[in-house]
Write a structure and sequence with these properties.
The protein is of the alpha+beta class. The chain is built from five helices and four strands. Helix 2 packs antiparallel against helix 5. The chain is globular.
């Protein structure tokens, strides 16, 4: 299962960063490996925690922040497979370029062995705030 973007997904993110300049919220779905694969022992969640220590620092340095993190605990509408994730994480960045700058940071890149060693699979969705249902603007 996927833990890294494809080249097409990276190209799309770069193109989006050029045309979408406002806040982006990254919606993360995480499924941890049973055991850590980063060579430092523990569980997949332990390995991901080693990655998260660096990642949160790098997010903050670029003006971003963790909006919310928690465990999905019940499916209200949808298929049961949706409930197979361990963690849902929302991270806000001032813009897509800040995210791209972060992923290009050498310290961040060095922490990737912990991310990859901790995850069985993940999904990452870039979300752009907009007008519409539930909007309080206007």
């Amino acid at each position: 299962m996927a833990v890294n973007p494809t080249s097409d997904q990276i190209e799309q993110l770069v193109a989006d960063a050029e045309r979408l300049t406002g806040e982006v919220v990254m919606f993360n779905l995480l499924k941890f490996s049973e055991t850590a694969g980063d060579g430092e022992g523990g569980t997949g969640q332990d390995s991901y925690g080693r990655y998260a220590a660096t990642a949160i620092q790098k997010v903050t340095e670029r003006g971003g922040h963790v909006v919310w993190m928690g465990s999905p605990d019940s499916i209200i509408i949808g298929d049961d497979v949706v409930g197979d994730w361990d963690v849902v994480l929302l991270v806000s960045y001032p813009n897509r370029q800040a995210f791209l700058d972060m992923v290009g940071d050498p310290e961040y890149q060095a922490s990737h062995k912990h991310r990859e060693g901790g995850l069985e699979r993940m999904a990452l969705v870039a979300m752009t705030p907009g007008e519409g249902f539930g909007s309080t603007s206007g």
